[in-house]
Design brief:
The protein has 366 residues and is α/β, with parallel strands linked by helices. It is built from eleven helices and ten strands. Helix 1 crosses helix 9, helix 4 crosses helix 11 and helix 5 crosses helix 6.
């Protein structure tokens, strides 16, 4: 009996050693710590948190402290429903129309000043497992306003029902479709912007890299809100800011503090892709010859260094990238009706006006 136990223990040790070796050599990417500098100065005009933001942050924290009793798939569905209901009930200044984008469910979001030939592809966040065009209307409606573009918000396939690659393929399909189609039918795009938040920011960055690599027409600009750019979980702020990230700290914090071998294998099995692949981690790919890219992040969130490293590497490789940060804000605070969001969208407007051809862009930005 003892010999059997010793044999099983030996096998377990060997298997763990192999798993650790694969994790260290294949699943974890190259060291990108050299891109931790320079650090951007805070973009916010005030270091004081607004009362509205504090109230929204407190509500999020209360939700984590008093979660529903459901578990597993039931809990995920509750979270999906709550996120969709919040977005669908928001008061927005835009027209919303459902559309079939070559078999992909999506919706047009059109602000009063939006021009049909100016297009913006929006890829929502939600940890790859939740979110929809409905949940992100507070963001897409504002982007339509500040860019003067019609927004195509896509309902890409979510995990865990689908693989990560399914979502990537949906983003690519939508990119091609949007270049040739507007809300009134076939019409070539004069200008194109690609944007996304959090996990959707990840999809946005990988989609643009794919467009470059396949010699497609590139967007005129890219906007990534609090994006995850490195799924190998190597950014220092993932651990440093876990306690201050009210949106992600309770759910994602335990993942980044787990032993690397477990977190990497768990990520691989969940996404069914190598975390170190540029398909998963755009930071780890070639960032040259990319369109002007704006990244915004909270100085309190876990993905702060994901944004900083991406911008610094892109600039080092000859692309134009700018990272803007705000103190004491939530992950993707843009989705809330708070002064900090107003300021962030104003900075987005300025970036777009600087880098995207104006054409006949209406001047009545809201």
């Amino acid at each position: 009996m003892v010999q059997v136990l010793l044999a099983l223990l030996s096998v377990a040790v060997v298997l763990f050693a192999v798993a650790w070796l694969i994790s260290a050599t294949s699943l974890t990417g190259a060291d990108h710590s050299r891109y931790d500098q320079p650090r951007p100065a805070s973009t916010a005009t005030s270091s004081t948190e607004s009362k509205d933001h504090a109230a929204a942050s407190e509500a999020i924290a209360k939700g984590w402290a008093e979660p529903p009793s459901a578990k597993g798939k039931d809990m995920l569905q509750l979270m999906r429903d709550a996120l969709n209901e919040r977005g669908a009930s928001a008061k927005i200044r835009a027209d919303v129309r459902e559309v079939d984008a070559n078999g992909l469910k999506a919706e047009w979001v059109l602000a009063p000043n939006a021009k049909p030939s100016r297009r913006l592809l929006y890829i929502h966040g939600g940890g790859y497992v939740m979110g929809s065009p409905r949940s992100h209307r507070p963001v897409t409606s504002r982007l339509s306003e500040v860019s003067g573009s019609i927004v195509l918000a896509i309902d890409y396939r979510l995990m865990p029902e689908n693989s990560r690659m399914a979502g990537i393929e949906d983003c690519r399909l939508a990119y091609d479709w949007l270049l040739a189609n507007g809300p009134d039918g076939s019409l070539a795009a004069e200008t194109l912007i690609v944007a996304g938040d959090s996990s959707g920011g990840n999809f946005a960055l990988t989609t643009v890299a794919w467009a470059r690599d396949t010699t497609r027409r590139l967007p005129d600009a890219v906007v990534a809100l609090c994006p995850q750019t490195d799924v190998t979980l190597s950014s220092p702020s993932l651990v440093k800011n876990a306690a201050t990230d009210v949106m992600q700290g309770k759910s994602f914090g335990p993942v980044v503090t787990a032993p690397k071998v477990f977190s990497m294998w768990g990520t691989f099995l969940m996404h069914k892709l190598n975390p170190s692949s540029p398909l998963m981690s755009p930071l780890l790919g070639d960032l040259s010859q990319l369109p002007p890219t704006l990244l915004q992040a909270s100085e309190s969130e876990m993905f702060l260094d994901d944004a900083i490293r991406y911008a610094n590497k892109a600039n080092a490789q000859g692309s134009i990238a700018e990272v803007q940060t705000w103190p004491k804000t939530m992950h993707v605070w843009h989705a809330f009706d708070v002064p900090e969001a107003d300021e962030a969208f104003e900075r987005i407007r300025e970036f777009i006006e600087k880098h995207v051809p104006s054409g006949n862009l209406p001047s009545n930005h809201l």
